[in-house]
């Protein structure tokens, strides 16, 4: 599955900051752009696993929206 990401160079601390705008709070970073991209993949996987855990524990509900 593909997720949109935004990657920006961190002018103050150095390295790169990357986040997935469709997954609230899913942010990572890396010293290089390649490292940041690998780290956001791990962050997205962890985010999705936490969503599945909430579903299993019946703490998360979903709704269907027609566009």
Task: Name a few traits of the molecule.
67 residues, alpha+beta, 3-stranded antiparallel sheet, 1 helix, 3 strands, 36% helix, TA_system_antitoxin, HicB-like
Task: Describe, in plain words, how this protein is organized in 3D.
It is a single chain. The chain has one helix at 33-56, and strands spanning 6-9, 16-19, 27-30. With 67 residues, the chain is α+β, with helices and mostly antiparallel strands. The chain has one domain. It has a 3-stranded antiparallel sheet with strand order 1-2-3, with helices on one face.
- Helical content class: 25-40%
Integer tally of domains: 1
Instruction: Quote the average pLDDT.
Output: 95
Secondary-structure element series: EEEH
Give the uncertain stretches in residue-range form. none
* Percent of residues in β-strands: 15-25%
The structural class is alpha+beta
Identify the overall geometry: elongated
**CA gyration radius, whole angstroms:** 14 Å
Structure summary, number of beta strands: 3
Strand order of the largest sheet: 1-2-3
Distance between the termini: 21 Å
Instruction: Characterize the main sheet.
Output: 3 strands, antiparallel
* Total DSSP helices: 1
In short:
By secondary structure, the protein is α+β, with helices and mostly antiparallel strands. The chain has one helix at residues 33-56, and strands at 6-9, 16-19, 27-30. It is 36% helix and 18% strand.
């Amino acid at each position: 599955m593909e997720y949109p990401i935004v990657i920006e160079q961190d002018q103050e601390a150095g390295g790169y900051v990357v986040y997935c705008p469709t997954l609230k709070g899913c942010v990572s970073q890396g010293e290089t752009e390649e490292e940041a991209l690998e780290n956001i993949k791990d962050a997205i996987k962890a985010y999705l696993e936490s969503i599945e855990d909430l579903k299993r524990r019946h703490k998360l509900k979903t709704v269907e929206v027609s566009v």
